[in-house]
TrEMBL record:
<keyword id="KW-1003">Cell membrane</keyword>
<feature type="transmembrane region" description="Helical">
    <location>
        <begin position="316"/>
        <end position="339"/>
    </location>
</feature>
<keyword id="KW-0050">Antiport</keyword>
<feature type="transmembrane region" description="Helical">
    <location>
        <begin position="222"/>
        <end position="238"/>
    </location>
</feature>
<keyword id="KW-0813">Transport</keyword>
<feature type="transmembrane region" description="Helical">
    <location>
        <begin position="250"/>
        <end position="268"/>
    </location>
</feature>
<feature type="transmembrane region" description="Helical">
    <location>
        <begin position="174"/>
        <end position="193"/>
    </location>
</feature>
<dbReference type="GO" id="GO:0015385">
    <property type="term" value="F:sodium:proton antiporter activity"/>
</dbReference>
<dbReference type="GO" id="GO:0006885">
    <property type="term" value="P:regulation of pH"/>
</dbReference>
<comment type="function">
    <text>Na(+)/H(+) antiporter that extrudes sodium in exchange for external protons.</text>
</comment>
<keyword id="KW-1133">Transmembrane helix</keyword>
<dbReference type="InterPro" id="IPR023171">
    <property type="entry name" value="Na/H_antiporter_dom_sf"/>
</dbReference>
<keyword id="KW-0915">Sodium</keyword>
<protein>
    <recommendedName>
        <fullName>Na(+)/H(+) antiporter NhaA</fullName>
    </recommendedName>
</protein>
<keyword id="KW-0812">Transmembrane</keyword>
<feature type="transmembrane region" description="Helical">
    <location>
        <begin position="92"/>
        <end position="111"/>
    </location>
</feature>
<feature type="transmembrane region" description="Helical">
    <location>
        <begin position="351"/>
        <end position="372"/>
    </location>
</feature>
Length: 386
């Protein structure tokens, strides 16, 4: 089972299944009871922490997911696919297109003041889903296509993290943030003293410090998932990679499916399509269409800058395949929907439906296009070796 949870295919199926179950449950006879349960508040005695179950999932459990993302970011920025400007530049340009074009499409459709705050929602790429589709349908694709997609998705994650940190900070408490920062530094420093002799003492202490840092960042007014990001960047790389390896089955098998389930607890509005919010249509179009257009055009421009007479690193049809994969927003887009429309439950629910619908369209498109490109490369390889 652990092997399945560490794979690229199975967690994607699990995540999609959890979202479908959440949507079905919300629209079933038990839906109202489950929704009431998700709104049930749980407080930590002796602290100001008093959150609903759905907020504990989105704020605390998802911080663990972002902790794992940040560890991967740290590795890629120092030893991996983004450790030089040359490696990062082309996927960064493509990623910029995959952010800018969806924003433009969203604002054209949902410029009304009531809905325009949702513009960050269609900018995200779900790396787990994208790599899952690539593993399922991409047999035969050149490794450089996978590397390009991985780098693009990681840069998208960075953009999403910046949006969460900058756009959704409220009632900033600099005192709490300062304490949180000190605790994060202490966490990072302790990670550099972990050894086989002391890990039974130091690691539990690091967990306690991490939880305290999360609480102070939460109280500081910045979305608490940012604490996970900062802790993941602060930890020593060796210990971080070990921690990510241990946490990966829990993130893939529990945290992300639970988050997807609670996020998808949305009652489908019983109205005509014309009565639905422009935000839903904007996300539904901006995710699959905006990502394909943005990544393909900006990526094509990036690939055009090369020595005369040489072949592009990634050909245009493969950029289209990467664009379809980029349109699978899911996890971070669901979180951004909850944050952008936190004060309007109806808009939030319709935005979530837009994310689910847009991601499903991108998922179907990417399955077809990636399969076609993989078949082309397999034939090319066969003819070359013959």
């Amino acid at each position: 089972m652990l092997k399945l949870l560490r794979s690229e295919r199975f967690p994607a199926f699990l995540l999609l299944g959890a979202a479908i179950v959440g949507l079905v449950v919300a629209n079933s006879p038990v839906g109202p009871a489950v929704l009431d349960f998700s709104h049930l508040h749980l407080a930590v005695p002796g602290t100001p922490l008093d959150l609903s179950i759905s907020h504990w999932v989105a704020d605390l459990l998802l911080a663990v997911f972002f902790f794992g993302v940040a560890i991967e970011l740290q590795y890629e920025l120092t030893n991996g696919q983004l450790n030089t400007v040359g490696k990062a530049l082309k996927p960064a340009i493509a990623a910029a297109g995959g952010v800018i074009v969806p924003i433009v499409i969203y604002l054209v459709i949902a410029w009304d003041p009531a809905t325009r705050d949702g513009w960050p929602i269609p900018t995200a790429t779900d790396i787990a889903f994208a790599l899952g589709v690539l593993a399922m349908f991409g047999k035969g694709l050149p490794s450089k296509v996978r590397v390009f997609l991985l780098a693009l998705a990681i840069i998208d994650d960075i953009v999403g993290i910046v949006f969460i940190a900058v756009l959704f900070a409220t009632d900033i408490d600099f005192g709490s943030l300062a304490i949180g920062a000190v605790l994060i530094v202490a966490f990072g420093a302790l990670s550099r003293f972990v050894s086989d002799r002391n890990k039974l003492v130091v690691v539990p202490l690091m967990v306690v410090i991490a939880l305290a840092a999360w609480a102070f960042v939460f109280e500081g007014g910045i979305h608490a998932t940012i604490a996970g990001v900062l802790l993941g960047l602060a930890i020593r790389q060796g210990e971080g990679l070990q921690a990510r390896h241990v946490l990966e089955p829990w993130i893939n098998g529990l945290i992300l499916p639970v988050f997807a389930f609670f996020s998808a607890l949305v009652v489908i509005p019983q109205v005509s399509p014309s009565e639905l919010s422009p935000a839903l249509w904007a996300i539904l179009i901006a995710l699959p269409v905006g990502k394909i257009i943005g990544i393909t055009i900006f990526g094509g421009v990036a690939m055009a800058v090369r020595p005369k007479g040489t072949e592009p690193e990634i050909r245009l049809p493969d950029l289209v395949a990467a664009g379809t994969l980029g349109g699978i927003g899911f996890t971070v887009s669901l979180l951004l929907s909850n944050l952008a429309f936190a004060d309007d439950a109806t808009l939030r629910d319709e935005a979530i439906l837009g994310v689910l619908g847009g991601s499903m369209i991108a998922l179907a498109l990417s399955g077809v296009i990636v399969s076609l490109r993989a078949r082309h490369h397999r034939r090319l390889a066969a003819s070359t070796s013959a």
